[in-house]
């Protein structure tokens, strides 16, 4: 199947399950909810991270109410988002207080942690890279925050620059070195008619796919390296979801390109 999932028309523009993706952990949905409307989500045997990509909302679960969430009306305001963690065997009623773009990230859970709001001031903000490899990162649900399986982060890349670069992978369980994590990229562009190039490939090239995601498209990364290159004139935002058997983000660089981290040129023979 294709690793590129095109956005659908209507309110439910993305719907990815482990069965659809052919893997074991990540589910990912995006809903566009008009002001005044609401939806109800049952978590079942999965934990959820509800990310307000844009817009305002009030969210209630069986045990808690979280009114008046949100502040940014576009992800390109580049302020950290509001999010809500929902445990398994719960539900969430989401009411749009303004037109809402809601990402629903899910993975298997046991119910260890209660529902909670993740406020913008709790989101770690960092800048990575240098030169044309710079990006702004919002760590919404990192491996240091309470959750059972999910890792959630959003990344901004300037026009004409690269991210998820140098190429790295996290598809092999190597204790202390690398963890096995599935991953999704939910792409947005400013202006919205933009696109990027993303490649997903393995060392032996048994998987080697190049894609051009447009606004609201998702790229699935079951294994391998997965760099992104933006196009001049268009800034990039993507929301990453990762999940796997161990909730830790450990990765390996592709040997050929790891030298870029040091800023020097490789020795030529």
Topology record:
Blueprint: E1 4-5, E2 12-16, H1 18-21, E3 27-33, E4 38-42, E5 46-54, E6 57-61, E7 65-69, E8 83-86, E9 91-96, E10 100-108, E11 116-118, E12 124-128, E13 135-141, E14 151-157, E15 162-163, E16 168-169, E17 171-174, E18 178-180, E19 182-190, E20 196-201, E21 208-211, E22 218-221, E23 228-230, E24 235-243, E25 252-253
Antiparallel strand pairs: 1-22, 2-3, 3-10, 4-9, 5-8, 5-10, 6-7, 6-9, 8-11, 12-13, 13-14, 14-24, 15-23, 16-25, 17-18, 19-22, 19-24, 20-21, 20-23
InterPro entries: Deoxy-glucuronate_isom_IolB (IPR024203), KduI/IolB_isomerase (IPR021120), RmlC-like_jellyroll (IPR014710), RmlC_Cupin_sf (IPR011051)
GO molecular function: 5-deoxy-D-glucuronate isomerase activity; glucuronate isomerase activity
Enzyme class: isomerase
């Amino acid at each position: 199947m294709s690793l590129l999932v095109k956005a659908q028309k209507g309110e439910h523009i993305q719907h990815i399950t482990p069965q659809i993706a052919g893997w074991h952990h990540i589910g990912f949905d995006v809903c566009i909810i008009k002001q005044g409307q609401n939806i109800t989500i049952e978590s079942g045997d999965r934990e959820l991270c509800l990310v307000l990509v844009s817009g305002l909302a009030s969210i209630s679960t069986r045990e808690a109410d979280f009114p008046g969430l949100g502040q940014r009306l576009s992800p390109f305001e580049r302020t950290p988002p509001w999010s809500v963690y929902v445990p398994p065997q719960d539900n969430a009623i989401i009411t749009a207080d303004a037109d809402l773009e809601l990402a629903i990230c899910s993975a298997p859970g046991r119910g260890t942690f209660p529902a909670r709001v993740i406020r913008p001031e709790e989101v770690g903000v960092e800048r990575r890279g240098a030169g044309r490899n710079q990006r702004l990162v919002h760590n919404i649900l990192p491996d240091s925050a309470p959750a059972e399986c999910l890792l959630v982060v959003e990344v901004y890349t300037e026009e004409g620059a690269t991210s998820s670069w140098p190429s790295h992978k996290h598809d092999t369980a190597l204790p202390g070195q690398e963890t096995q994590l599935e991953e999704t990229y939910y792409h947005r562009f400013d202006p919205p008619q933009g696109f990027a190039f993303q490649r997903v490939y393995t060392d032996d090239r048994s998987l080697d796919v190049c894609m051009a995601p447009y606004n609201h498209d998702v790229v699935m990364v079951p294994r391998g390296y997965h760099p992104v290159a933006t196009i001049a004139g268009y800034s990039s935002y993507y929301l990453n979801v990762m999940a796997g058997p161990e909730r830790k983000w450990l990765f390996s660089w592709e040997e050929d390109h790891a030298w870029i981290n040091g800023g020097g040129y490789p020795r030529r023979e």
